[in-house]
Amino acid sequence: MGLLTGKRALILGLANERSLAHAIAQKLADEGATLLLTYQGAVLEERVRGLAEPLRAALVLPCDVGQDEEIDRLFTVVGKECGSIDILVHAIAFAGKDALTGAYHNVSRAGFQQALDISVYSFTALARGAAPLMPQGGSMLTLTYYGAEKAVRNYNVMGVAKAALEASVRYLAADLGPQGIRVNAISAGPVKTLSAKGVRDFNSILSVVGEKAPLRRNIDAKEVGGAALFLLSDLAAGITGEVMHVDAGYNIIGF
């Protein structure tokens, strides 16, 4: 019997074995959760289906979070196939390359809107769709980063998006708390994932964090998975609206 035996977890954003979403999915599966996974597009479908078997996922479904009708269709199918879910994991963020280079103030209106739509609004839309499938309560989780709190070089519009995402966590927690639904976020330290490669000079960020963090090292994806397991399980039954830092303590350092 694991911490999540009998629980169903819908995970969006799983793309490869090096992602934080995969580390979370693996930890939840190891603790007995039944996984429901999504993908966007044919290329990602092949990847996600390849990951689904070792994770023992029960369903693999399409969903483009930029399209309301696809979100609606996702929850219609999940409701029909499963009846209810207990966990929602949102591990989705996107900003165009041009929006992550140069000065932040040069971001285009279209680039700004895209980053906020995919990285922030999608969590709100998914929470709205998932809540009716959590009649006995549940837990929702998203992923953020220190760039939401401080200006991190080359993080640009994504930092603004993550700040909005963290605010959304608080508002969603307030909205859904009366239904017994908890909403939290993990602010993960830098990890070598494919998406991190989109941030210019990412290796220098790793170097600085590894040198200055209280633990004098960077984190790995498994540590994010462990924190996610805690927040999504009954061990964290009294926690909602929080942003938990998993960054070897880097966020507490003032120099």
Task: Describe this structure as you would to a colleague.
It is built from 7 helices and 7 strands. The chain has 255 residues and is an alpha/beta fold. The chain has a 7-stranded parallel β-sheet with strand order 3-2-1-4-5-6-7, sandwiched between helices. The mean pLDDT is 94.
Tell the overall outline. globular
Percent range of helical residues: 40-55%
Series of secondary-structure elements, N-terminal to C-terminal: EHEHEHEHEHEHHE
> Total strand count, please?
7
* Largest β-sheet summary: 7 strands, parallel
Given as residue ranges, the uncertain stretches (5+ residues, pLDDT < 50) are: none
Strand content: 5-15%
Q: What's the CATH superfamily, by name? A: NAD(P)-binding Rossmann-like Domain
Find the structural class using helix and strand composition.
alpha/beta
- The CATH topology is Rossmann fold
| Alpha plus pi helix count | 7
User: So, CATH architecture?
Assistant: 3-Layer(aba) Sandwich
User: What is the alpha-carbon Rg in Å?
Assistant: 17 Å
CATH class: Alpha Beta
User: Roughly what is the average pLDDT, rounded to an integer?
Assistant: 94
Total number of domains = 1
Strand neighbour order, sheet with most strands: 3-2-1-4-5-6-7
